[in-house]
Specification:
2 copies of one chain form a homodimer. In chain A, 38% of the residues lie in helices and 10% in strands. By secondary structure, the first copy, chain A, is of the alpha/beta class. Chain A is globular. Chain A starts with a helix and ends in an 8-residue tail after the last helix.
Amino acid sequence: MYEGIVQDLIDELGRLPGVGPKSAQRIAFHIVQTQNFDVSRLARILLDVRDKVRFCQYCGNVAEEVTCHICADPDRDTTLICVVEEPKDVAAIERTHEYNGRYHVLGGAISPIDGIGPDQLNIRSLMPRLESGEVVEVIIATDPNLEGDATASYLSRLLVAMGVRVSRLASGLPVGGDLEYADEVTLGRAFAGRRIIGGE
Amino acid sequence: MYEGIVQDLIDELGRLPGVGPKSAQRIAFHIVQTQNFDVSRLARILLDVRDKVRFCQYCGNVAEEVTCHICADPDRDTTLICVVEEPKDVAAIERTHEYNGRYHVLGGAISPIDGIGPDQLNIRSLMPRLESGEVVEVIIATDPNLEGDATASYLSRLLVAMGVRVSRLASGLPVGGDLEYADEVTLGRAFAGRRIIGGE
């Protein structure tokens, strides 16, 4: 439909997740038509990412060195490991400023329907991290859905057998949410996980 | 939040139109984590676009040569010029296969609130195209909104004064749409533009 190279760009942008044909076209024309859009900067960063980004040898998070900045940070609490599915979950937890331990990034969750079992996940490298006995608690922070639940119960069985204390993030009503709009499963979990706040 | 280069990529993707921070993060991790995503291909295309894409000397459409493939095509009807706002409008009209004339791309529409007057648009280069007298009709296909209407009336005054026949795309109910969901303005225009289909 367009002259070759513009169509190539639209096609290539259309492969990105969440970018449909219309968005790809819009982005391509923005790149073509906007004078101050620095195309070479984006191109350079893409190549930099390909060349420089790797995965941390300890936790599997994205990193620019052999070790990510969290595993390399001596001020982090080495007695806690928080297990998450994806690097973006690390970023989400870091934004809370509630956690100062280290992470372990699985690279996904157990999902038999997608052919993802424990062997496809970054689980094996978690074991050596627990051998020294320094870690006192593993906090499982997989997504609160079917796959995340399956992964959490698989991991907890494995870790409890190794004598490690295992916890999971609380499930319940989102803060700022409206009780009447919570789905039944969430509301059910909020009941099951209720905490005594007074009385005997 | 992330290691330097990944955050750079997220920031850079976030400058693209329609890509918010969450989408930018999702795209960035897709690029980082998907083994078979060809980063260098996207980078190369971006640089190619910067180096090769230009605007057609006649119509202002995007082109890889001095003249775009439509203006260079001897089989197109040279007696018709369709005036559109953007290159993507050319593509949309081409997809209909209803039009075999040439185009003129304005690069936008008159919008005083955004500081865009006739001088900021690619209007001046339309005049030499009409001088030979070969063009018998100019079809104005600007968007059916306030800016497109303003541009259409500005152009039609200019062109009628030059003795050129000027038409505008019909406004009315979208095909396949539902009358009850049409907004009042569209429905009003559909009435105003109604065509006699029978009787005397």
